[in-house]
Write a structure and sequence with these properties.
With 223 residues, the chain is mostly helical. The protein has a domain at 111-216. Helices cover 72% and strands 0% of the residues. The protein is built from 7 helices and no strands. Helix 1 runs antiparallel to helix 3, helix 2 runs antiparallel to helix 3 (67-105) and helix 3 packs across helix 5 (131-162). The relative contact order is 0.13. Bound molecules: protoporphyrin IX containing FE. Protoporphyrin IX containing FE is lined by residues 31, 34-35, 38, 82, 85-86, 89, 92-93, 154-155, 158-159, 161-162, 177, 180-181, 184, 187.
């Protein structure tokens, strides 16, 4: 074997720097909170569907309200939930900027593109017997590339919706909303694949992966 070529299936940098770990868990928390706001907005509270209940409750006190008046109440409730969605959205924008900063100015172990290129190189150089395992690592990394695209779309379309009252973003609002909506399902798909993949790797071949993502480099890990 050529000693200058690194083993094919080893991830180039197996520990995760504090900045990456912070980014990962803060992002996971904020995306979960965003999904919870949508769960409340669209399913649990679903204020628009409560208008007939408002009308019924008022009629017990001999007060009649029109559907439009009931809709105004519903709007107040849903705006409160959207306010929280937008606060969390701004925090996600900040994390996106942080990730971009690490990508553009950080050392290679913090740059996603450098890690991806290294894994691609190792996949290409892998002998046939190691191709399968190297391919799995490459597949995992490729899903992360998709995730970065999805989160970029979420941030961009979210900002367009925040500034929908401006002349520039106004005309894009409807399209941005549709894309934002569809991308949510893609992110949910990514989360499902990611969690199953990480648990699988932790159990089968990369023990300590999760604890390294929580606490950094483990005692048995080569950089
Ligand atoms: C990854 C996390 C996110 C998820 C899962 C998510 C999901 C959603 C969904 C499903 C909607 C409803 C769209 C519709 O009504 O068709 C929505 C609306 C919205 N989102 Fe997000 N979003 C996320 C991130 C963001 C970010 C980062 C921002 C801001 C930069 C943002 C800002 C908004 C705004 C302004 C609206 C419209 C609220 C309104 O109608 O008043 N979202 N989001």
């Amino acid at each position: 074997m050529n000693p200058t070529i690194a083993p094919a299936v080893e991830v180039p940098i197996k520990d995760y720097r504090a900045s990456l770990r912070f980014w990962h868990w803060a992002n996971a928390l904020l995306i979960s909170l965003q999904l919870i706001t949508i769960l409340f907005q669209k399913v649990i509270v679903n204020s628009r569907s409560a208008v007939p209940e408002f009308q019924q409750a008022m009629s017990k006190n001999n007060i009649t309200i029109t559907t439009k008046q009931g809709g105004a109440f519903a709007h107040i409730i849903s705006e409160r939930i959207w306010d929280w969605h937008i606060y969390f959205g701004w925090a996600l924008v900040a994390l996106w900027v942080l990730r971009l900063g690490l990508q553009l100015t950080g050392p290679s172990e913090l740059r996603f593109s450098a890690r991806l290129m290294e894994i691609l190189r190792r996949y290409r150089l892998a002998p046939p017997a190691d191709k399968g395992a190297a391919g799995k690592v490459l597949f995992a990394k490729t899903t992360y590339a998709l995730f970065y695209i999805f989160i970029t779309i979420m941030v961009a379309t979210g900002l367009i919706m925040i500034y929908e009252d401006t002349a520039f973003f106004g005309p894009m609002h409807h399209t941005a909303e549709e894309i934002h909506n569809v991308t949510m399902y893609l992110i949910m798909g990514f989360i499902a694949v990611h969690v199953v993949g990480v648990v699988w790797a932790e159990i089968k071949e990369d023990h300590g992966l999760v604890s390294r993502m929580v606490g950094g480099k483990g005692p048995n890990v080569k950089a």
